[in-house]
Please model this.
Amino acid sequence: MSDQFIKLSPEQENLIKIYQHKWKNIALSTKRIDRKKAAETVKEIYAFCGLAMPKIIFCESPYEAMSKTLPSSEYLIILPLIQKLLQLRLSILKLFPEQARFYQNHLAIERPDDVNVHIHTTLYYRFISYMKSLEQQFQIDLGYLTELEIEVNLSELYHQLQVELGEQYDTNFIPAATFCSYCSWLDFWKSALNYTGDQELLQLFQSLAKSCGWIFPYKRVAVVCDRPTKLCFDSDNHLHAEGETAIEFADGYKFYAYHGVTLPEKYGKLHPQQWQAEWLLKEDNAELRRVLIQGIGYARIIEQLHAAELDQHQEYTLLKIENDVDVEPIYLLKMTCPSTGYIHVLRVPPHVQSAQEAITWANWGVAPAEFAVQT
Model:
């Protein structure tokens, strides 16, 4: 095989965005799953990986799965011998009430993750084999793969579930949306190069991405969760909504988020324009204070918290927020446009001593005397 890779044609390159868009829409779908198709997909995955057919249980959300479905299915997940030992231990502890109250909260048995690892490993190496065959047959630069990747950032969801569920949180799950990148790649190569190799793998990945939300796979049981009924992201792919929930599930599980930071309902249910600067004086969480500052804006903070004027230079004013509303003191440079009256506010380091020093910092070290301030 030649070391010289063949470049895609302009027409083929134009297809990259089309397939990326197609599979990102599927990854972010809020359409209810077809449970019959989802069950068939799970059976296909287990068969593909050489595993016995599990009992399949459906639930509305990962929260329901972790808090109710998995605990009630423990007898199918934990080995019988371990179950008997756990029951014996609990029986003995009942003879010692004081110790029992402590240990019952620390008896969580780690669920096995071998099925999840086996499924991921099997699918991944089958995919790598597919791509090697593609590279050898067409001598295509697989660097194009990065352009076809689908990024769905749900880290805020997993973090919030972990906070709310504690020891009940289970990391042993497969988010079907993560397989949309594989589908994007495989679908593209099939269309761009008419490459029909390993159709079984392509069909399996597509069924998984289209038919399931999350799968908790174990030897004797697989719990399948539905998709969210609502998903909102910002331009940086972080969960985000203003005055409404950022994510919701059919069972009512939901939460608010602002540019990737989970918000309590008292903030999230209100649009940032309704947020009050005085909340900064009562909020103990530094990250939430940062979000409130970002949402409220320094102009409103100056107005509502009555910033102290430290110095002035022409249309520039150096201000300080007297209250400790952030990790370090808030110093602000306010500029009033002479022609429009528009007020612009910029945060400056707390070490600045004068308006002129703040102006110099804001202009990358250029002092006011070195540039014309009038426009």
